[in-house]
Amino acid sequence: MEQNKTLLNLIAPKEIAKNFELIDIKEKSRLIELIFEEQRDKIPHELSGKEAVLDGFCNQLSLQAFPLKGKRIYLIIKRRRWKEPGNPSGKHYSNHYDLHYKGMQTTKEFGDFLKGDL
Predict the structure, then answer these.
(1) Between the chain's N and C termini, which has fewer beta carbons within 10 Å?
(2) pLDDT at 36 exceeding the cut of 90
């Protein structure tokens, strides 16, 4: 189990490895998808001290990362969506993470590499 965490820290950015769980790996002919779900205990701060229930997931985010074995790597990120039970407004809450630069669909590290900043 500890080896899996070490490997995950080598592939995924720190913020993803810290806040998300790797739930699946899909290897295709030219790419590998690593699917992550936000950890269940990451309740948004707006709901801190309040009753909160899970209400599905936000739209998933697909970020390209450094290639492995000659294949493109995509990190598929699924953030959880929360709500207060009985709230008539139906407002949803979710956590926000700084995982990529605006306008880029890559991890920050891979984006820096592509721009020559790394």
Answers:
(1) N
(2) yes
* pLDDT confidence of residue 60: 96
The domain ranges of the chain are 2-115
Distance CA 76, CA 58 (A): 12
pLDDT band at residue 49 using 50, 70 and 90 as cut-offs: confident
Please say whether the beta carbons of 83 and 53 come within 8 A: yes
31 class by beta-carbon count within 10 Å (0-12 exposed, 13-18 middle, 19+ buried)? middle
Per-residue exposure over 40-73, b if at least 16 CB sit within 10 Å of its own CB, e if not:
eeebbeeeeeeebeeeeeeeeeebbbeeeeeeeb
